[in-house]
Amino acid sequence: MVGVEEAKRIMMEHFANTARRFGLSELYGYIYGVLFFEDEPLSLGEIAERSGYSLSHVSTALKLLENIGLVKRIKKPGDKKAYYTAIKNIQEWRKEAYYKKIEEDVKQTRENLLKALKEVENDKSEEAEKIRQRIEFALQRNAITEKILNIFLKHEDEKVLKALLECLEEKLNSENP
Questions:
Q1: CB–CB of 41/28 below 8 Å?
Q2: Backbone phi, then psi, for 121, in 5-degree steps?
Q3: Which three-class secondary structure string do you get for 102-158?
Q4: How far apart are CA 124 and CA 40, in angstroms?
Q5: Which of 85, 99, 117, 118 could cysteine-pair with 41, CB 3.0–4.6 Å?
Q6: Ramachandran bin of 79, using left for φ above 0, alpha for ψ from -120 to 50, beta for the remaining angles
């Protein structure tokens, strides 16, 4: 049982450190970790008890974790309490939450770049020309980003990454024998 507890401790620290890397309090990682190891959904009170954090801190953290798709809120029939469970399939989370957010940002960026381009389309000044060139370059990069993102959305991450590595290695090795 010591091995199991140590494995859990290692993973809890991993989740806390991951939260810190994303600019969040370790609290978010520990709460996710509590849910990650549970087979059944937990109530707010149970999560607070197991994590050692206050109800208000846990409630705030759960809202964010739910918004980013790492935690799912569940209602049990005949029970007024909300229960929470961790999304354990990180690959599916990455696709649904992370890539979808990036996709949304890429589309919004394209729309704003096109709006900005329209604003300077009839301006013949030197400054307007510089802005047009920068916007057109950004639109090209945005289109490439969107294509790459769509590949990740349509295919399994591992397949895409493996193919990408093979392609890059082949291309770079042929240029530098």
A1: no
A2: -65, -30
A3: HHHHHHHHHHHHHHHHHHCCCCCCHHHHHHHHHHHHHHHHHHHHHHHHHHHHHCCHH
A4: 65
A5: 85
A6: beta
The pair of structure tokens assigned to 105 is: 């940002």
Read off the tokens for 99: 């890539």
**Do 22 and 65 form a contact (C-beta atoms < 8 A)?**
no
User: Could you tell me which of 50, 37, 44 has the C-alpha nearest to residue 10?
Assistant: 37
Amino acid at 161: L
Q: What are phi and psi of 82, to 5 degrees?
A: -95, 140
Global pTM value: 0.60
| Cβ–Cβ under 8 Å, residues 68 and 76 | no
Q: What is the CA radius of gyration of the chain?
A: 23
What one-letter code names the amino acid at 4? V
pLDDT in tens, 119-135: 999 999 999 999 999 99
DSSP helix/strand/coil, 71 = strand
Note the pLDDT tens digit of each residue in 18-73.
889 889 999 999 999 999 999 999 999 999 999 999 999 999 999 999 888 889 99
